[in-house]
Amino acid sequence: MDLDRRSPVRPLRALLAGVALAGTAACFPDVAPNVQSLPHCEGVEPGCGIAAADDCCAVGQVAGGGFDRVNDPALPATVVDFQLDRYEVTVGRFRQFVADYPRNRPAPDAGTHPQIDGSGWNPEWDALLPADAEALRVSLQCDPNFRTWTDEPGDNEAAPINCVSWYLAFAFCAWDEGRLPTETEWNYAAAGGNEQRAFPWGSAPADDSRANFGCDTAVSACLLPVVGSTPGGDGKWGHSDLAGNVAEWVLDFHGTMAPECRDCAILEDETFGREARGGDFSHTDVELATTFRIGFLPESGQTFLGFRCAR
């Protein structure tokens, strides 16, 4: 049972990263401090976290500031306050999007970062989305062994959705009144801001209590567990699975970072694909580091790729 794995466009490791994010959204307060529940979650049952009882739609506030992208002092950046999903988008949460598809395709400029011109939905991308709901469901079945989507609700509702292209991830976040995080925003949250953490939890080596990683797909089923099931790996602001489980699409192209930036992203295609951060369930702790960068073709829907949204 071997995973048809890694068609990265270009795997750069200790290179560089993108930038900031801003803004708040019209959301509904949750019971936890600095946590909000999202607008399209009426049909999503609580089931995330170590006790499988947390709100899968929870959002955590990230206090902005300055830090060094990929822990490199030559790449300083500033990030303003932003919100980031506490959990990777789940199957149950994505199911609400599928039910409303294709009426919920993004309008032009939807999902725009308020500080970054040209970061919203380009109507030319419409042709890269599935034609209808049936085509969407088919696209979510990219691998018979490791896909998480089921056409009917089942045991995977709190697992991270995978087999999702960059375009679908963008469309979902725009529909959910958010956007994909920039690479720098993602990096800032994972590194604990100016704490410059080697991993989201700190400097301690990765293990099974901190991340879902290192599964041998040739001999194991490697089922993706409930998001948030390794709380020992939570980041500074309470975000789960920033390392392992599924790698996460971000807004940026995989490319060369500016030496210094504020509220920026890499929006020029250097033919290396779109960035995906955080490593995944089938690879080693090297990919879990907050410095690790890798690009994939944006139309690629893979079992090791998922996402979370910012706002």
From TrEMBL:
Pfam families xref list: FGE-sulfatase (PF03781)
User: Can you tell which superkingdom this protein's organism belongs to?
Assistant: Bacteria
| The Sulfatase-modifying factor enzyme-like domain, residue ranges | 66-311
SUPFAM superfamilies attached to this UniProt entry: C-type lectin-like
Extent of the signal sequence:
1-22
**Alphabetic keyword roster:** Signal
Q: Which named protein is this?
A: SUMF1/EgtB/PvdO family nonheme iron enzyme
Q: Which organism is it from?
A: Nannocystis punicea
